[in-house]
Each structure stands twice: as structure tokens, then as C-alpha cells.
Design goal:
- With 115 residues, this protein is of the alpha+beta class.
- It has helices at residues 16-26, 67-76, and strands at 5-12, 31-35, 39-44, 47-52, 60-64, 82-83, 89-95, 99-105.
- The protein is 18% helix and 40% strand.
- The chain has an 8-stranded mixed sheet.
């Protein structure tokens, strides 16, 4: 059985730290999971929000799959898999309406997490 899980939504912003600070003030319980000058990840209300630099990542929705499923889907869509700073691997698809979808797999995700 192939299972996909929602992972995050990414929004380009001009200032990562300012975006994270605003969301922490605006949404009770929002927690920063990771931050540097070019990328930040926040969890709020059960959702994960990534703030990215526009020249590095598009606005997108991301869905987590197993490593095996990532490789299968990349081959099916003839997509190149990129390796990220946290060793996650992903590729982007263009969806109708000029939308972007990221398919991502994390190195610490086990196949049984999707069963």
C-alpha cells in the first residue's frame, strides 16, 4: 500500500527571522523547529510551515513518502531528486494553476511508518 502524508507548506519571505517571530507572536503555541538565514520551519496547530527565500524555493505544498516511493515517483515523473542540508531528498512537480508540489522523503523515516 502506498501512503503519502502531508508534510509542510512553504512560503517565500524576504526575512526568515522576522517571519518566524511574527508567527510565534500570532499563533499560540507555535514553535520553531529549525532556523537559519535562508530557511525556517515552524510547527503550529499541528501544521508545519516552512519559510524560504524566494530565490531558493518556490511557494509549495510538500507531501512525505517513503524513500522507496520517492524513487518510484521520481522515475515515473522523470524528475531529478535533490539532496537537502538535512539529508532529506525531494523533487518538485508542477501542478495545474502554476502550483508546485514537493515530494519528500526523510532519512530517518522507516518504511513501516507508512504501513
Amino acid at each position: 500500500m502506498r501512503i503519502v502524508k502531508f508534510d509542510h507548506v512553504a512560503q517565500p519571505v524576504p526575512d526568515i527571522a522576522a517571519a518566524l517571530a511574527w508567527w510565534q507572536r500570532a499563533v499560540p503555541g507555535a514553535q520553531v523547529l529549525y532556523a537559519d538565514d535562508t530557511w525556517g520551519l515552524l510547527e503550529a496547530g499541528g501544521a508545519r510551515l516552512a519559510f524560504v527565500m524566494a530565490d531558493q524555493h518556490p511557494y509549495h505544498l510538500a507531501f512525505k513518502v517513503s524513500t522507496e516511493e520517492l524513487e518510484r515517483l521520481a522515475a515515473e515523473h522523470e524528475a531529478q531528486i535533490a539532496v537537502h542540508r538535512d539529508d532529506s531528498r525531494s523533487f518538485y512537480l508542477e501542478a495545474p494553476g502554476d502550483a508546485r508540489v514537493e515530494i519528500i522523503a526523510y532519512p530517518d523515516t522507516l518504511e513501516e511508518d507508512f504501513e
